[in-house]
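Exercise 7.
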Amino acid sequence: MLNLLVKPGWVLAENVVQDRIGNAAFGTFAALLNFTLVLASVSDLGITQHTTKRVAAEPGFLPEYFPTVLPLRGALSVVFLGVMVAGGWLMGYRGHTLMLLALIGVGLLLTQYAQFLRGAVQAHQHFRTDAWLSVLEKALMLGLVLALLPIGITLDRYVTVRTAAAGFTFVLLYGLVTRLFGRVPWRPRRAQAGELLRGSLPFALITLLYGMNERIDMLMIERLASPQEAGYYAGAYRWVDAIMMYLWTVLPLFFAKFAHSLHSREEQRELLWFGQRVATVPLLFVAAFVLFHGELLFFQFKHSTPAELARMTLCAQLLFLNVLVHAFFAIYSTLLTSTSHERPVSWLVALSIALNIGLNVLLLPRYGAVAGALNTLICAIMVSGGYVWLVQYRAGVAVPWALLARLGLTFGGLCAGWYALQAYAGLPWLLESLLAGLAFVGLLFATGVLRVGELRGALRRND
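Solution. The predicted structure, written as tokens, is:
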């Protein structure tokens, strides 16, 4: 809930930042940020996930291994900062831009180290404290950005306040961990370090694959098209990232349920059929809204031309079709990864990355941000088809084809009704959206996605 409260404010604040500093400058920042995010996601080589798991399972792990873990994690951060800067130089960044890359990298690595320290807090069941820590950096960045608006915001100032917020959060969290668990001396042992790295590398590989799959587009658009095009893509993708929080909040709940029902195909089937509706239904309406009123997402962009706003709107519409694909099929990936099918899922993601890179190389120089959004959609469709095939034939769980058809029919009916309202009614967008929402609820019952008997049963259980 805390993250859901902070996230909308951060999206709106970033819209203002992009509007003030310009699409090209923000496109450069977005490319640098995404490049560092890919590397920062594996900067600890999976030690964070491995350590959290060990601390939760073995109470004696923390005092025995942390004298090795802390300096090892710090040394890896320094190494990866060097890798980031060297990689940026090889890609053609020079001078001031390379300095910005280093500053962004420092901030991200501090954030990653702070998340690593939060693992110890989580593993010792301090969940309330961890909840507040999870939003501290974002809330602090939001406050600093708002403080910059009256005096004028530039790219340099924006990067500086982001890094400052990450540094403050890291220092505060390090002090908190010391207070909770005592001062941990730094005494690295080679044998322990080797054992940690062997156990953590599988986590690092999976994290790298998913990180590249999500972040590589922005970097390639900036390098192969232009910073301006990267800015258009960033403006659209920001909303996608915010909306996808719904799935990333809901799907972990089903991950645990699928894992618990590992030996019962029937229970997994029931969970899948129930989860299909939970994951898909809300995002059907959101996707339809963006298809018909995507321009409203950019109401804060006062300094962009109508042509620029139209391009960002088209990118948003293509990217929200990608959200729609995930709404239908992301739960199939959740089922597979929770039931020991991680390897074929990883291969699918790797294939998707290769396809995406190939399409980007071919299409980005000519079509820019629009090609990036379209390529993302194509890859999502491809990998989702693989998920469905694996669930049906490898996991042995029946795919709810009839339910998928009803959901598709509902979305088609919603779009047809919305088009009729837009073409013939001439209503204000808010009233039009309200009427479309009422029609959507009716379609859910008419197509059998929701049933009156289920609703009555739920109300009785609540009573």
